Amino acid sequence: MGNGTSIGRVRGLGSSHQGTHHWLTSRLTAVGNLVLITFLIVSLALLPDYAYATVRGWVARPLPSIALILIMINTFTHARMGVQVMLEDYIHGEGGKIAAWLLVNIVPFAGAAFGVFSVLRIALGGA
């Protein structure tokens, strides 16, 4: 007539087994940002001058343009995951949660897409 054993009542109510993936992805994007931003700073420091034509020519080269695209994707992914954790912790109302989820997924995607488009436009010789 009881509710079963203690372990029987809580079995299956544990972790969703997704926290590790989120934690690991967050750490990997942080390390990626460290490497990519270091490359960006060093390669910009090695430029002879910072005139518009010089920097534009630098961005048009394959290695810097690929690195800048990776920076855009990696940085916005890392930021989205950080904001997601804050939303999960501090927003409890359903209406606010839905609006926040829409913003946390649309804004970083739009920012990264704009950055990638801008770099590709320069790298491919657009106006």
What features would you describe in this structure?
- There is one protein chain.
- The protein is mostly helical and 127 residues long.
- It has one domain.
- The model has no long low-confidence stretch (mean pLDDT 87).
- The chain is elongated.
- The chain starts with 5 loop residues before the first helix and ends with a helix.
- 79% of the residues lie in helices and 0% in strands.
What is the gist of this entry?
This protein is mainly alpha-helical. It is built from five helices and no strands.
What is the secondary structure topology, with strand pairs?
Blueprint lengths: L5 H5 L8 H27 L6 H9 L1 H29 L3 H30 L4
Helix pairs in contact: 2-4, 3-5, 4-5
Which labels suit this protein?
mainly alpha, 79% helix
- Computed structural class: mainly alpha
Distance between the terminal alpha carbons, to the nearest Å?
78 Å
Please count the beta strands (DSSP E, at least 2 residues each).
0
Beta-sheet strand percentage? under 5%
Whole-number total of structural domains: 1
Main beta-sheet strand count, sense and barrel state: none
**What average pLDDT do the residues reach?**
87
Radius of gyration over alpha carbons?
22 Å
Helix content: over 70%
Low-confidence stretches: none
Give the ordered list of helices and strands. HHHHH
Shape: elongated
